[in-house]
Each structure stands twice: as C-alpha cells, then as structure tokens.
Amino acid sequence: MVERTRKEQPGTDIVIAGAGYVGLATAVALKSSAPHLGVTVIDAAPAGVWRNDTRASAIAAAASRMLDRLGCWDAILPEAQPINEMTVTDSRTSDPVRPVFLTFNGEIEPGEPFAHMVENRVLNASLRAKAEELGIEFIEGAPVNGIEQGEAHLTVRYADGKSLRTRLLIAADGVKSRLRDMAGIKTVNWEYGQSGIVCTVSHERPHHGRAEEHFLPAGPFAILPLKGNRSSLVWTERTDDAERLINDDDFVFEHELELRFGLKLGELHVEGPRKSFPLGLTLARDFVKPRFALAGDAAHGIHPIAGQGLNLGFKDAAALAETIVDADRLGLDIGSIAVLERYQTWRRFDTVQMGVTTDVLNRLFSNDNVPVRALRDFGLGLVERMPRLKGFFIRQAAGLSTTAPKLLQGQPI
Ligand SMILES: Cc1cc2nc3c(=O)[nH]c(=O)nc-3n(C[C@H](O)[C@H](O)[C@H](O)COP(=O)(O)OP(=O)(O)OC[C@H]3O[C@@H](n4cnc5c(N)ncnc54)[C@H](O)[C@@H]3O)c2cc1C
Fold first, then answer.
1. How confident is the model over 96-131, as pLDDT tens digits?
2. pTM of the model
3. Residue of 293, 297, 289, 298 lying closest to 320 (CA atoms)
4. What are the structural domains, with CATH classification, of the chain?
5. Which residues line ligand 1 (CB under 6 A)?
C-alpha cells in the first residue's frame, strides 16, 4: 500500500536499506506475512552484484526452517550440503598429527542436520526470486545518504537527490553501516588484528559431509563441506600474513594451504578468487530509535569462529518481522519506539551473549601459550565425554530455543 501524503514525494510503509541476506530475508518475511504493507529495498550496489559472491555460509537448522517457511528452501536444498559430522583439533601448524579433541554428530532430529553449507550466491538468488514474486520494490545502485525525522514519518534520501517517505526505516547495510552513524547510534567495537581468508578448494576424495575446525596458533582454520568434492575454507591469520598470502602466487598459497589442510582428501586445488576480510567485534549500543531499526551486521559484527554471524542476522529478520506484523495486526504504529523496543529487548541479550562468546573463544584458541593450551584441551576433552552437554551445544549452534521467533521454529507469523 503506497501512501502519497505529499504529491511530490512518494512514500511506502517500510524502507529497508541493504539487499544483503538480512535485508532480503526481512523484506520477504514482512511481505509474505502482511502483503498489504508496502516494502521498498534500497541498495548501494548495482543489481546482480551478489552473483559474484563466492563465499559460502553455514546455515543453522533454525535458519533453514525459516527459509523453508518463507518458501525459499526448496530452491536451496538441491545445492545445500548437510554437515553430518564436525571434528575439532588443537595443534601447531608443523605438528605431523592433529589429535581430535571433540566430535559432534550432526543431527538434531532424525533426518535434520544441525546445519547445511550453502553457497552465498544460491542463498541470495532464492531470497531475491521470492522477493520479486511477492512484489517487493527494489531501488539499486543508490546508496542511502540522508535521513530526516518527521512527526509520523522519516524521509530517506538516496542517490541523485531522490527521496522516499516511510513509516519505518530498517538499516541492514552491513557492519560499516552508514545509516547507523546517520541515526547517531554508537557502537562498542574493536579489531582482532586478524583477517579471515576465504576460498573454495576442490579435492580428490569425498568429505562425507564432515566439517573440521583446526585451532592453530594464528586462529581457527575451518574446512566446511560443499556439494561435490569441494570445501569452503575460512582461514584466520594475522592481517599482514593474510594480505601476503592472498597476494602470493598459486604455488606458494597452495603449499601453505596443504600445511594446514593436510592431504587426507587427496590433491587440492583452489577454485576461484581468494579474499580476506578483516575481523573485529562491533556491537551497536542501541538497535532502535523512533522509526528506525538496525538488523544483521549493521547491529552486530562478530568473529566467524562459530559461523554464526548470518544466523544472528536471520534471527533479527524473524524477530523484527514478527514484531512489526503483530503491531500492525493490533492497529499500532509500526514505527513507534514502544513497538520497536520489543524487538530490541528480544534480540539484544542474545546478540551480546554471542558476541562475548565468540570473543572469548577467539582469544582462548588464537593463542600458543602452553598452560592455556593445556587448559583448553582439558576443557574440550571434558565436553567430549559429556553427551548431554554436547547435545546442548549442538542445539545452541542449530539456533533452536523456545524463545526463538516463530519463523525460526518453522511456524507462520
Ligand atoms: C570470513 C567470514 C566468514 C563468515 N562465515 C559465516 C558463516 O559460515 N555463517 C554465518 O552465519 N555467517 C558467516 N559470516 C558472517 C556473514 O557473512 C555476515 O553476518 C552476513 O553477510 C551479514 O549480512 P548482512 O545482510 O547483515 O550485511 P551485508 O551482507 O554486509 O549486506 C549489506 C548490504 O547493504 C548495502 N549497503 C551498504 N551501504 C548502503 C547504503 N548506504 N545504502 C543502501 N545500501 C547499502 C550493501 O551494498 C550490501 O548489499 C562470515 C563472515 C566473514 C567475514
């Protein structure tokens, strides 16, 4: 429903800035539960840019339940690789053997793995197709560059002096969110001096759906299974070493890779580009202001040690959509601070908890100090011998909890 309160300025109920995974999931969740609401997505990048995203993400079971409920999972499933098993090792790069300290069996319900590996381009294509099917409007290649607060609306300014009036602006514009700054929301933030090198490798032998996390002195080295004899790597190094590695020639890079990966899957080849992402912790002090809400990395950027960044963002999408749709059904103002505070209360504790957990894990495991290693290996061994505790961790990683938003429990809003 497009309102035209002033003839010269077009308007819509909800503007989402950012057509990444979280912006798209929020748009689809809103529009499929409340089709009468007008939803416009504005993105700084030109249309089609996501087709070049060569990364892959671990999608937790709760997020796949949501994608299924939103009608996106059927298109993703044929290309999603279930994680059947996970092993954790702790050693030095030069150690000839990597003793396994912890193993997880991948199912949370019979036939339902705790996570799938999905290539980002597949995820984006399915969310985008659903958004278009639902009639969500897109404005692309148009960074939002100004926000003005009105009494019962916001004016969102974007490229070439154009503007749109809206009752609610959702900022899903990534970890360096300009909209967060424009709204005057401060962050707690620090850098780790580490970068995550991301690339895809093909290998001779099958991985059988096994994910591996090797804790090495520079940080975690994760091997995550993709469809076919391929794996996605998230390889943490000190930032200067990461820069050197991604600029080294293929021979040097593949040699360094083999030292960490080993040869149990046969000969390795790097497929496509290698990229590195600087790693840090960013937590927004507030998630909402009147007529304004943050979602996804714009609200929280965390270390990828547990592969949970996007899953946290999907939880935001589900909680925010449920908050807005419930308020709309009750005839409340969807942009009022009273409504938006429900979303903030729902999401902030979980986010801070995950941010702190990943921070502590990263400090504990990116460390070669002998007593610290002994202590953490004792801890891993203890968890390995406690099946109930392991079950608890698996359910946490799968994102399943009774307080989860309805979509993440596979229910309609
Ligand atoms: C190395 C690494 C590995 C990771 N692995 C995993 C994993 O396995 N599992 C997992 O759950 N998470 C993982 N993550 C985290 C995950 O990638 C992010 O949490 C996720 O991409 C955030 O999505 P988003 O939609 O919030 O933001 P983004 O993906 O950053 O999208 C932001 C969008 O906003 C747009 N934008 C920016 N500025 C503006 C503006 N001014 N106006 C309009 N639009 C704008 C951008 O063009 C972009 O489209 C990983 C992260 C890293 C760095």
1. 666 777 787 778 888 889 999 999 999 999 999 999
2. 0.93
3. 293
4. 12-409 (3.50.50.60)
5. 17-23, 42-45, 57-58, 143-144, 172-174, 178, 196, 198, 234, 277, 296-297, 304, 307-311, 313
